[in-house]
Amino acid sequence: MKSWNEQFTSHPEPVNVDGELLLRVLHMRNFYYLGLFFTFIPLIFGWLTIQYGNAPLGFGLWLSSGWLLISNISSPLAGEGPPWTKTLAMKLQLVRNEAESDKSCCQFPAPVWEVTAVRCAICRKILLNEPRPDLGRPRSDGKIKGLFLLILSGGRPLVSLNEEE
Hints:
Blueprint: H1 2-5, E1 15-16, H2 19-38, H3 40-52, H4 55-77, H5 86-99, E2 111-113, E3 118-120, E4 126-128, H6 143-153
Antiparallel strand pairs: 1-2, 2-3, 3-4
Helix pairs in contact: 2-5, 3-4
């Protein structure tokens, strides 16, 4: 999927807040919900395989899809939603609008989304105090470590915001 990632820098680098980023956030949101929908396929095949075929294979299918389903259903109960939301995309669009208006932070604003917040690359002012979730970019620390971190974090940011800031 090279064309999917050509417009973005490699993983730890900041991402320019532009239309491509907004589109990526909305695509990741859609993929999150499609993943929930497609979880039912291995869940059903796992149940059928347990009933009529190879029980270890069916149990593996049932266990993996059940884990994804339970973790995604329990996160809203814990007060967490998906890491990519329409509200987040709208906040990023508001940052873009403000940077292009007369109320911009400096003369030549360039909003970039760093790991912990959206900042202006020129004057370093924080424009949006929102940590960056995983955007599906190639990682500099390798595919295996990146996949492991993605599984552990569920795409959520690995940093948390200070309540005092």
